[in-house]
């Protein structure tokens, strides 16, 4: 091909070749299709090929429309892949010719042109084509309807794909008025496209419409009676979007809008009805407004939703095979089988498995029901597994989800309307109506459980009977609905419902319908989790059924069957270890293990199943161990070999799926863990040590993570095989102590600890190379619990035989070491760590002087230490007492709570006389006091004065404070301000004792919300708290322990942050399992949405608007979650070169938002970021310690307040200029709060102290609140 693109003309012969190629592409012959594709690939290497394609699209009017359109689609793909590499002249030619074709008489060509234009904008940016939007807008002013439609179609596609590129001043100020004008167009197509374009803009940005919102609403409401179905669909979508951004503007018309949506939800057009149904879900996201708006309409809305849950005639036609036919013997198609993924094992000291996801999904925009991910983000996906994967069921799914979420808002207020409907539908002769009634009963199970419980004695037998219905879809939905009521069934006498339900579920597991098999197996797994050991008497029948299912199930349902078997093993535990049970269950599992190929992803769920079964069977698993072990080692070897070939010859070999490698490593790790020394005979003749070495050097973090877990397990089980190679492995482990890769670092540290226990003094040459990295991990603020525990235990174990090497560093890690281990149970790992610590203290007692109180607290955490360890503790405590003298000892320990003093006295007899003196001796704790004796000092900065959170009451009259001793203090502000100025300390009014320390605190309306260290949410009424007293403490309005979750994290996980949505009854809770959950304040046990994406634990949350919030995490990112548009934006803060600091981590702890700006920092530098552009505006620089970690940020009216691991309250203005740093009485600042109510206005700062500093003026500390 030749020619300059500016005056480009096609060469006729070459043009004809391209046209013939397009014509041949329509051939049904496979070989012809293959030849065409090869030729297209060759032509794409030539830039001028794009010119030929756009020429055919725009100029060859006599060519078939299908071929012209195909030329445009091929051009679109070329733009997507090659645009940046095309010469400017060719790019300009393509743009010009594309715009000339926008008025083509054929709608297909006009649509194709719009696709090409939006693809260019995506890859080039709207700024690089400044004439585009003005040109399209000018086209709208013409009289040619084809030109108008083509231009409007292109605008709509640009708005859909690139609305975030459009700026208010440059683009939208002109575009939006033009779009509003076309709301009144006589062409229904133009009306629909214009409204669709505005909706696309609303999804991304609402500010451009703010100034003309009243005009927009007038135009919008004028379309209410429009006869066009697409206009009606887009109108429903607009009103739903406006609920999020401009609810205040809709408030006066909300009644009329509800009436309109009731009508449209019943629209015969499926797409319109679905958009209208989405309105109810959107309204439910603001429960208070939803309750007020919908309560009068429930008698209309509930029947409509239940009717929409019926299968339509089209559904029945599509699902005909699932209604009448038994398809259990028909093999699944490949597309029927949902993919499964395996996550690498994270090792803990107590041998509990807890998987940490490297990266999660936030929202799944694909609503086709094909995603089996554990990261469902809202209730719209809740029913996918039960409502089936056909497009005609979308309104059914959305209606069922709406009924579920609305029932959780209205609770028993639902029942006066719903119960008569259920009575009519459940017992109806028409199976379609009956099925919808059963679905409705299941949908309201959580929201209406209280009111529906009296009816369950009638409903449960009916449902059990319905499991035998002749229609498969009725049987399958009944399985699901019964699973929603399993908790109730298990609580009753077994003779009432349990036995019959179990019998019928087992029968349905063997049903002839694959859909019923799937639903029954899932329901049975739920029953297993609820019943646990109550299943033991029924194991013969259960196992017989599950084994028969292995013979019958096709590939897809086998995945669910593995889960049911694994859950059974977890539920009944060692009760499965009976000879007859072992033989029964292992035979099909091992047959599947042998039948599966090494590249079959069915290995993943089978692995998880075998791991659970092996744990339950213990030594009874030994006869099956050899083939599993050999298969795993062969799989590892083959995968490593393929990986090596792919790296050496990438053009010839593809990189293997390393999930298979991880699967094999994790299963071997599980075998070593469960079988201990019995695995010795298998390890000896194998090549597993060499394979672990190769895996430990792999580039994949998950492969290294699993290899370190196996290395540690083999160290425990058969160290003698590792011993000759240990000097090779230890440097590799040392290279993987980067706390930014938490799971790899965790497993590496754990393996070092296990190896140290075996090596003894031979470990000494390696210790000094390990200590610096271990101390960095140990000293991380709010590091992951498991990582800190493993690090502390490994440091302690190094002290058993290498105390001389570790003891000099004792002062640099003793405090976090004690904090990490004070709360874990007595066990061998903890004992070994404390024995090592005692050895280090004997060599370097001065190393614990400054933090001696933390040591006392850690020692007191033991319930029953072994005699040898108890004697070591006693010698240390008595030695320190003798060294400082009884008087100083008494003065120092007077700060201890009485329970701690009693435990130390009872266990170690260190208070022979001063327990009596305690009651007569009053010691007033100052901000920081040091008792000196013989040149030694004790820090009076006690462990018990760490204050994590504080909040002011909504009326501004009270301050609530929580500390690390699980106390909640209340201070009356008016009383504090009236005290004589000479009194520097204000004492608390009330003090409540809670079960666990509070890490998160928030307030909304009249409620105080607390999130604690073990994943509990407690909600108090402010009036109850402020009226209580110490002798009559108040109880929370509701308390919920743990979150229902499918996330692979072992509970409990601490709640680190809570953010409440203003004018709403909803809150977000960020937790130590890296996830954030949206819950209702009135129903905190009901998780509405789960947001997953952070790879480390969540530190802080901040609300930007009603449907946009931000989260900061230890993974170095801040994420913006837009729950209306289902978008997530990631601020890679720690990756910003100007912000990262040497020798520091990447965690982001401090976070706050004001308008379109946020401030954040932590282990990285503080910076102000502009949210919309996702760029940082300025770095906040001032004098501070070089390794300071910023822990809290607050954006006040005129300044930004910052606290962290130094005593200063640092203040900046909004330009980033440092204003002042004010000394506080704290060592570390964890919380800053401002009370803006004028009567009691103040700012309070809390952290490592018994005191909370109060600022009436931000220039100095005015007084202190005291928790003593």
From TrEMBL:
Keyword Transmembrane found: no
Regarding protein family, the annotation reads: Belongs to the importin beta family. Importin beta-2 subfamily.
According to the record, the residues making up region (Disordered) are: 343-370
Question: Example GO molecular function term?
Answer: small GTPase binding
Q: Where is the composition biased (Acidic residues)?
A: 361-370
Taxonomically, the superkingdom here is Eukaryota
What protein name applies here? Answer: Transportin-1
User: Could you confirm whether the keyword Cytoplasm appears in this record?
Assistant: yes
Query: GO cellular component annotations, sorted alphabetically?
Result: cytoplasm; nuclear lumen
Give the Pfam families listed for this entry: HEAT_EZ, IBN_N, TPR_IMB1, WD40
Q: Where in the cell is it found?
A: Cytoplasm; Nucleus
Q: Which Gene3D superfamilies match?
A: Leucine-rich Repeat Variant (1.25.10.10), YVTN repeat-like/Quinoprotein amine dehydrogenase (2.130.10.10)
Q: Keywords, A to Z?
A: Cytoplasm, Nucleus, Protein transport, Repeat, Transport, WD repeat
Any GO BP:
protein import into nucleus
The regions listed as transmembrane in this protein's record are: none
Which segments constitute the Importin N-terminal domain? 36-104
Residue windows of the WD repeats: 1091-1125
């Amino acid at each position: 091909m030749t020619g300059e693109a500016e005056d480009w003309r096609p060469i006729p012969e070459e043009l004809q070749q391209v046209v013939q190629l397009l014509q041949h592409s329509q051939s049904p012959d496979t070989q012809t299709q293959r030849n065409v594709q090869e030729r297209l690939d060759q032509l794409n290497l030539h830039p001028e090929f794009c010119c030929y394609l756009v020429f055919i699209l725009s100029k060859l009017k006599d060519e078939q429309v299908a071929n012209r359109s195909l030329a445009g689609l091929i051009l679109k793909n070329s733009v997507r892949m090659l645009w940046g590499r095309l010469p400017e002249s060719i790019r300009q030619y393509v743009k010009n010719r594309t715009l000339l074709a926008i008025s083509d008489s054929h709608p297909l060509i006009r649509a194709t042109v719009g696709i090409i234009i939006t693809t260019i904008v995506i890859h080039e940016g709207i700024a690089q084509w400044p004439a585009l939007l003005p040109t399209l807008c000018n086209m709208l002013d013409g009289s040619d309807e084809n030109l108008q439609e083509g231009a409007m179609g292109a605008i709509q596609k640009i708005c859909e794909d690139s609305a975030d590129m459009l700026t208010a001043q440059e683009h939208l100020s002109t575009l939006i008025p033009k779009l509003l004008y076309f709301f009144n167009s006589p062409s229904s197509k133009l009306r629909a496209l214009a409204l669709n374009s505005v909706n696309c803009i609303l999804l991304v940005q609402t500010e451009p419409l703010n100034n003309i919102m009243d005009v927009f609403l007038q135009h919008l409401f004028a379309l209410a009676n429009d006869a066009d179905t697409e206009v009606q669909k887009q109108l429903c979508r607009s009103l739903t979007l406006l609920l999020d951004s401009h609810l205040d503007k809709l408030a006066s018309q909300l009644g009329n809008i509800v009436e309109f949506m009731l009508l449209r939800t019943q629209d015969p057009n499926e797409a319109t009805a679905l958009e209208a149904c989405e309105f109810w879900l959107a309204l439910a996201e603001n429960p208070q407004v939803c309750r007020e708006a919908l309560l009068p309409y429930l008698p209309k809305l509930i029947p409509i939703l239940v009717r929409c849950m019926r299968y339509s005639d089209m559904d029945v036609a599509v699902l005909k095979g699932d209604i009448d036919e038994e398809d259990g013997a028909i093999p699944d198609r490949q597309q029927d089988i949902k993919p499964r993924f395996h996550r690498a094992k994270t090792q803990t000291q107590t041998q509990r498995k807890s998987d940490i996801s490297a990266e999660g999904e936030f929202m799944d925009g694909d609503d086709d029901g094909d995603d089996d991910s554990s990261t469902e983000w809202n209730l719209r996906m809740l029913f996918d597994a039960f409502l089936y994967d056909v497009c005609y069921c979308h309104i059914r799914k959305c209606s069922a989800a709406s009924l579920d979420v609305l029932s959780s808002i209205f609770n028993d207020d639902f029942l006066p309307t719903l119960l008569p409907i259920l009575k009519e539908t459940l017992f109806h002769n028409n199976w379609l109506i009956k099925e919808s009634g059963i679905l409705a009963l299941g949908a309201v199970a959580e929201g209406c459980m209280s009111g529906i419980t009296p009816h369950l004695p009638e409903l449960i037998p009916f449902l059990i009977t319905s499991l035998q219905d002749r229609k498969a879809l009725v049987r399958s939905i009944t399985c699901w609905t019964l699973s929603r009521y399993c908790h109730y069934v298990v609580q009753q006498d077994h003779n009432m419902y349990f036995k019959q339900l179990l019998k019928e579920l087992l029968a349905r597991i063997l049903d002839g319908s694959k859909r019923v098999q799937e639903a029954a197996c899932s329901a049975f797994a739920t029953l297993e989790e609820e019943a646990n050991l109550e299943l033991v008497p029924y194991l013969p029948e259960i196992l017989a059924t599950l084994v028969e299912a292995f013979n019958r199930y096709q590939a897809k349902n086998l995945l669910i069957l593995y889960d049911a078997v694994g859950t059974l093993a977890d539920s009944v535990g060692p009760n499965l270890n009976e000879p007859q049970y072992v033989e029964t269950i292992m035979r099909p599992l091992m047959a599947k293990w042998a039948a599966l190929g090494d590249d079959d992803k069915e290995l993943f769920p089978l692995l998880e199943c075998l791991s659970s079964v092996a744990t339950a069977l213990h030594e009874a698993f030994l006869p099956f161990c050899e083939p599993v072990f050999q298969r795993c080692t062969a799989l590892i070897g083959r995968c490593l070999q393929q990986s090596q070939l792919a790296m050496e010859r990438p053009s010839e070999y593809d990189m293997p799926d390393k999930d298979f490698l991880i699967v094999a490593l994790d299963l071997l790790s599980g075998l070593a863990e469960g079988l201990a020394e019995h695995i010795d005979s298998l390890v000896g003749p194998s090549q597993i040590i060499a394979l672990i070495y190769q895996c430990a050097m792999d580039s994949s973090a998950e492969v290294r993570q699993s290899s370190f877990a196996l290395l540690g397990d083999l160290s425990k089980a058969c160290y003698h095989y590792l011993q000759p190679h240990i000097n090779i492995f230890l440097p590799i482990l040392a290279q993987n102590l980067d706390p930014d890769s938490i799971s790899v670092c965790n497993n590496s540290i754990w393996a070092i600890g296990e190896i140290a226990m075996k090596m003894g003094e031979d470990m000494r040459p390696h210790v000094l190379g390990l200590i610096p990295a271990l101390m960095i991990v140990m000293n991380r603020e709010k590091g992951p619990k498991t990582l800190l525990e493993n690090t502390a235990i490994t440091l302690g174990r190094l002290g058993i035989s290498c105390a001389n090497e570790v003891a000099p560093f004792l002062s640099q890690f003793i405090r976090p070491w004690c904090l990490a281990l004070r709360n874990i149970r007595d066990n061998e790992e903890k004992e070994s760590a404390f024995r090592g610590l005692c050895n280090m203290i004997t060599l370097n007692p001065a190393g614990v002087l400054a933090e001696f109180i933390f040591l006392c607290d850690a020692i007191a955490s033991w319930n029953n230490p072994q005699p040898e360890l108890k004697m070591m503790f006693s010698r240390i405590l008595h030695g320190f007492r003798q060294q400082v003298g009884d008087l100083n000892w008494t003065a120092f320990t007077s700060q201890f709570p009485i329970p701690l003093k009693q435990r130390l006295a009872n266990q170690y007899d260190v208070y022979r006389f001063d327990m009596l003196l305690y009651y007569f001796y009053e010691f007033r704790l100052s901000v920081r006091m040091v008792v000196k004796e013989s040149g030694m000092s004790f820090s009076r900065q006690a462990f018990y004065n760490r204050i994590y959170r504080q909040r002011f009451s909504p009326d501004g009259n009270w301050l609530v404070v929580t500390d690390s001793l699980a106390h909640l203090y209340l201070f009356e502000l008016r009383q504090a301000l009236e005290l004589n100025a000479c009194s520097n300390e204000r004492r608390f009014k009330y003090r409540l004792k809670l079960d666990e320390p509070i890490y998160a605190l928030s307030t909304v309306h009249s409620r105080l919300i607390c999130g604690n260290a073990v994943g509990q949410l407690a909600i108090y009424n402010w009036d109850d708290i402020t009226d209580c007293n110490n002798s009559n403490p108040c109880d929370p309005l509701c308390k919920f322990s743990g979150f229902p979750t499918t996330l692979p994290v072992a509970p409990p996980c601490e709640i680190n942050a809570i953010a409440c949505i203003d004018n709403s009854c909803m809150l977000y809770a960020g937790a130590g399992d890296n996830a954030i959950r949206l819950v209702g304040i009135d129903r905190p046990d009901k998780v509405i949405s789960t947001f997953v994406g952070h790879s480390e634990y969540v530190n802080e949350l901040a609300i930007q608007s009603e449907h946009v919030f931000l989260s900061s995490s230890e993974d170095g990112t801040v994420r913006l979650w837009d729950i209306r548009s289902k978008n997530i934006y990631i601020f890679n803060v720690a990756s910003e070169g100007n912000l990262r600091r040497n020798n520091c981590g990447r965690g982001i702890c401090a976070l706050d938002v004001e308008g379109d700006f946020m401030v954040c920092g932590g282990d990285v530098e503080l910076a102000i970021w502009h949210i919309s552009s996702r760029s940082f505006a300025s770095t906040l620089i001032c004098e501070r310690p070089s390794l300071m970690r910023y822990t809290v940020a607050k954006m006040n009216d005129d300044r930004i307040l910052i606290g962290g691991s130094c005593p200063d309250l640092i203040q900046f203005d909004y330009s980033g200029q440092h204003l002042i740093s004010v000394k506080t009485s704290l060592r570390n600042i964890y919380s800053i709060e401002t009370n803006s109510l004028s009567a009691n206005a103040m700012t309070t700062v809390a952290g490592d102290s018994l005191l909370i500093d109060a600022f009436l003026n931000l220039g100095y500390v005015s007084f202190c609140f005291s928790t003593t």
